[in-house]
Amino acid sequence: MERLETFKNKYPDRDYTITIVNPEYTSVCPMTGLPDYGTFTVNYVPDKKCLELKALKYYFLEFRDKGIFYEAVTNQILDDLVEACQPRSMEVVGAFTARGGITSTIKAVYKRA
Amino acid sequence: MERLETFKNKYPDRDYTITIVNPEYTSVCPMTGLPDYGTFTVNYVPDKKCLELKALKYYFLEFRDKGIFYEAVTNQILDDLVEACQPRSMEVVGAFTARGGITSTIKAVYKRA
Amino acid sequence: MERLETFKNKYPDRDYTITIVNPEYTSVCPMTGLPDYGTFTVNYVPDKKCLELKALKYYFLEFRDKGIFYEAVTNQILDDLVEACQPRSMEVVGAFTARGGITSTIKAVYKRA
Amino acid sequence: MERLETFKNKYPDRDYTITIVNPEYTSVCPMTGLPDYGTFTVNYVPDKKCLELKALKYYFLEFRDKGIFYEAVTNQILDDLVEACQPRSMEVVGAFTARGGITSTIKAVYKRA
Amino acid sequence: MERLETFKNKYPDRDYTITIVNPEYTSVCPMTGLPDYGTFTVNYVPDKKCLELKALKYYFLEFRDKGIFYEAVTNQILDDLVEACQPRSMEVVGAFTARGGITSTIKAVYKRA
Amino acid sequence: MERLETFKNKYPDRDYTITIVNPEYTSVCPMTGLPDYGTFTVNYVPDKKCLELKALKYYFLEFRDKGIFYEAVTNQILDDLVEACQPRSMEVVGAFTARGGITSTIKAVYKRA
Amino acid sequence: MERLETFKNKYPDRDYTITIVNPEYTSVCPMTGLPDYGTFTVNYVPDKKCLELKALKYYFLEFRDKGIFYEAVTNQILDDLVEACQPRSMEVVGAFTARGGITSTIKAVYKRA
Amino acid sequence: MERLETFKNKYPDRDYTITIVNPEYTSVCPMTGLPDYGTFTVNYVPDKKCLELKALKYYFLEFRDKGIFYEAVTNQILDDLVEACQPRSMEVVGAFTARGGITSTIKAVYKRA
Amino acid sequence: MERLETFKNKYPDRDYTITIVNPEYTSVCPMTGLPDYGTFTVNYVPDKKCLELKALKYYFLEFRDKGIFYEAVTNQILDDLVEACQPRSMEVVGAFTARGGITSTIKAVYKRA
Amino acid sequence: MERLETFKNKYPDRDYTITIVNPEYTSVCPMTGLPDYGTFTVNYVPDKKCLELKALKYYFLEFRDKGIFYEAVTNQILDDLVEACQPRSMEVVGAFTARGGITSTIKAVYKRA
After folding, report:
1. Would you give the distance in Å from CA H43 to the centre of its chain?
2. Contact partners, residue E102, CB within 8 Å, separation at least 6
3. Nearest residue of H to residue I32 by CA position?
4. Residues 5..64 of D with a Cβ closer than 8 Å to E: which?
5. What is the pLDDT confidence band of residue I1, given thresholds at 50, 70 and 90?
């Protein structure tokens, strides 16, 4: 996987929220081999580190040729981003386009203990 | 009824939400024999099992020729899906198209005791 | 008044919500004699009885030639529907079209003691 | 029928267009006795006379208790309004709310020979 | 096929337009056996006969269990409706829901020679 | 100021909500002398008295030629309406059109002690 | 009336279009004395002169306390603006807010002979 | 390239229109190597052959890993589809997502001589 | 930095909310030197002082040529505005346009201890 | 001015249309010194050359600190782009944000003689 990068949060004394929306996600369905498309929304309260956007973009591009299910990719992205920037809290939502007339959205949340 | 299928939830340690929208529901009104149409939204927190989407699609198709009321179908779908995947919680919403100028929406919720 | 009708709730063990929207309400303003128009939304948790939709439609039609104020009709509909189906809770919202450039919406709620 | 009223067009040397929209039309279906609802749009180029809006409003109210079909009412309104204000041209569109899931719109046009 | 019915056009001296929208069309895909869904819009200038809406609704219902392609059904509906009411002109548009991420719309037009 | 009028609340035993929207507010900016425009939304739970809508409309018209700031007018309207109808609670929101590319909205709330 | 101002068109060799929208028009109804509100859209092809926007804004403000009908004000604005900037062509559209549930729009066009 | 397939047009005596929308197009920018995304709309009048949708879907998928410019891909798709189904006329529109804040849309048209 | 100005809050006894939206923010990206664009929303409960809008507008203009990151500018604006008007609470939201297909929104909140 | 760049049109035998939308235009008002904002839409049929998008982006950025009127900038952009790519035809539309409540849009068209 492409390395996520971070930069120092200059306002660590304040709980504030960063929301990032990537409407250009695509990967491959492991069962059919056909592409999946979706929009990922990441919402987090940074602690010491913020996610660098350009590296995040390249991170998302790594899924383009990967076979992965909706539930798996949403949870993995949450795990990867939490590990990279160690936020106070984070929510990841994957909203995928319709397949067979049915639309799926997965939402996973991390809250520091 | 068509058998619902499930697959193993790989992230059982985390409470996350799966939302599935099926805008192509149709059944038959038991009183008039005329078709009903609606959109079903299923929203659940999986435990050990996730609903497999293709089988879920075929499950919905089973209602196409069935005579059933709005309240009954919404509650039955909740019962069937809860039985199939044993979620931590689930919400089923059936939003039906207007009849006689009047629109109905039914929402039923399951929460594990 | 036209008699409201009910049918037996087959899922009395579960608190679920029924929402009914009637965008074709009309009555007569008692002061000007001119027609009023609006959309009524009824939202309730049934107990032993559900409101039958066709009878409900005819119930609404009874207001067509009646002179009644916005606040009165919204509260009366709540009273009538509560009396008819004895719900666990009910909310009635009447949203009326603009008169003199001003729009009014009335919301009344019943909760069983 | 309520008398339509007109006032003198002060700009007869110019072809200009007047558009009037009434979203509060209602009448009665001659077959079922149930109310119909719709929006009427009148679009005309006045000649010597313009339609007075208040009288036009009362004219529309006359249909409230009348049994009349969609095609008939749209054509009759065109005939009545043309007779009243003798325009250079006029278009009347009646857009009615759905019945049995099906929506109808009727458009009739008059052009002075 | 269910018989289409017509009623006499009372305004044959005027070219006017009738638009009918049916958002509740469904049939079966001849290749997959899975249901198709769509919205049909019929737009015509009547001559001596207008299409009766209730019979038209039942006509559309006849496709519910029929295996037929998008192009075929749109052209067949145009042929059937033209034969039934002999209009001066007619346009039929079938707009179908997405399959495999791809949406199709078919438009066919009849103009009396 | 134009006198606000009230009528007796016939349902004083129930806490219900009345929402009134006036999108046609205008006054004059005390600094520039230029007109301001906005939409006022009043939301209240009546006690013994309800606000009469026609008098309320004339009350709003009194601001047309008055020089008053956004914060002042929103708070004054809350004070005036509370004094007039002595509600259990009331919220007044003034949403004003953009000036210099910047839009302002003021929200003031009253809750009976 | 406030004086309209113009500035020199630097591209007189080209037919190009200038569209100006003023959503903050208000005047007074000559019959009821109550304010009218609307949006004016001016669309023109300049010849030697363009309308200066600040002066145009003050020109519109002059109608604030004036009693004038919809048809009259739309045509008068067209006449005034044509006289001021002598355009190759101009269209003025006044779209007024609903009164008694009915909305009016007036469109007048000038084309140099 | 994946082979496009066609099926026989059963209504060759009538000029009718088929519109196909694919919102899931993606390819690779030849300059940056980064993915491009867009929606393709194909609009054609068939002659003897219609485009088969499943093969068309696979045809579009072939661009996923291909480096190609907006203008080139739109014109190539038009050429390929025209060659495959020999239509009476065809229009292809590629609407691509923003890059550097700027959005591009390319439209190419074929008309049989 | 341009000096922010304030005026005396005339309703200090009441907790009310002022919302200000500026959709015309622009600054420069410190990494690429290219302009950034966004909408800033400021939402606060004033104590003794309110923010003067014209000075606030000039304050925002100071960022036009400044190189500053999304997180930094949102937090700095919160700090500057809190210092200027000493509110009971304040929320600042910066919603920036897409870069590389990815959109960012930053929300920072101040609450008086 | 930044140099516009072009690349060779590979489909010169076909009249096709390229539409480019830049919603991030800003310049300075020559009278007030305050920034203007707008969206530019360029629509052209290329002949031998197409506009290169990255250079076009830098071209637009050159207006950021320039004092120029709406009419002038729209016509100048048309002149510059026509000179750069010598198209068969081109249309440039500048839609600017509201000033003093009034919105302006300028549209200029070039057609090769």
Report:
1. 9
2. H20, H21, H22, H24, H53, H56, H57
3. H100
4. none
5. low
Separation CA E57–CA E80 (nearest Å) = 14
Q: Closest to C107 (Cβ–Cβ): which among F10, F16, F54?
A: F16
CB pairs under 8 A between F and G: 17
* CA–CA distances in Å: residue H93 to residues H110, I39, I104, J85: 12, 32, 30, 22
Interface check for E101 against chain A (CB to CB < 8 A): the answer is yes
Q: What is the mean pLDDT of residues A48-58?
A: 96
pLDDT grade for F100, boundaries at 50, 70 and 90: confident
DSSP B11: -
The string of pLDDT tens digits covering residues J10-57 is: 999 999 999 999 999 999 999 999 999 999 999 999 999 999 999 999
Helix (H), strand (E) at residue D70: helix D70-85
Tell me the pLDDT of chain I averaged across its residues. Answer: 96
Place of tokens 């939201």: I93
Pairwise CA distance, residues E39 & E70, whole Å = 11
Question: Rg of chain H over CA atoms, in angstroms?
Answer: 14
Measured in angstroms, the CA of G106 and the nearest CA of chain D are apart by 5
Nearest to F20 by CA among G97, G102, C23, C96: C96
pLDDT band at I113 (very low <50, low <70, confident <90, very high): confident
pLDDT bracket for residue G2 (50, 70, 90): low
Is the separation of the CB atoms in G110 and D24 below 8 Å? no
Q: H helices then E strands: how many in chain C?
A: 2, 6
Q: What percent of chain G has pLDDT over 70?
A: 98
G82: contact with F, CB 8 A cutoff: no
User: So what's the pLDDT on residue A23?
Assistant: 97
b/e per residue G12-42 (b: at least 16 CB within 10 A): eeeebbbbbbbbbbbbbeeeeeebbbbebbb
On the CB side of C45, CA atoms within 13 Å amount to 13
Q: What is the 8-class DSSP label of residue I3? A: P
What are residue F92's DSSP bridge partners?
F42, F108
Average pLDDT, chain D: 96
Find the residue in F nearest to C102 (Cα). F22
Dihedral sign for Cα atoms in the order D71, D74, D77, D81: negative
- State pLDDT tens for residues F18-76: 999 999 999 999 999 999 999 999 999 999 999 999 999 999 999 999 999 999 999 99
Q: Which distant-in-sequence residues (6+ apart) come within 8 Å of D3 by Cβ?
A: D55, D59
State whether residue F32 is helix, strand or coil.
Answer: coil
Residues in chain I: 113
Q: What pLDDT, on the 0 to 100 scale, is given for residue D100?
A: 87
Nearest to D20 among G104, G109, G110 (CB): G104
Q: What is the DSSP pairing of strand I17-28 with strand E103-111? A: unpaired
CA distance A81 to A88: 12
- H-assigned helices in A1-113: 53-61, 70-85
Residue D58's pLDDT is what? 96
Q: Which of C67, C75, C58 is nearest to C36 (CA)?
A: C67
Q: How confident is the model at residue F113 (pLDDT cuts 50, 70, 90)?
A: confident
How many residues appear in chain J?
A: 113
For chain H, give the mean pLDDT.
Answer: 96
Which pLDDT score is estimated for H2? 58
pLDDT category of residue I2 using cuts at 50, 70 and 90: low
Q: How does DSSP assign B51-113, residue by residue?
A: E-HHHHHHHHHTTTT-B--HHHHHHHHHHHHHHHH--SEEEEEEEEPPBTTBEEEEEEEEE--
Q: How far apart are CA A61 and CA A71, in angstroms?
A: 18
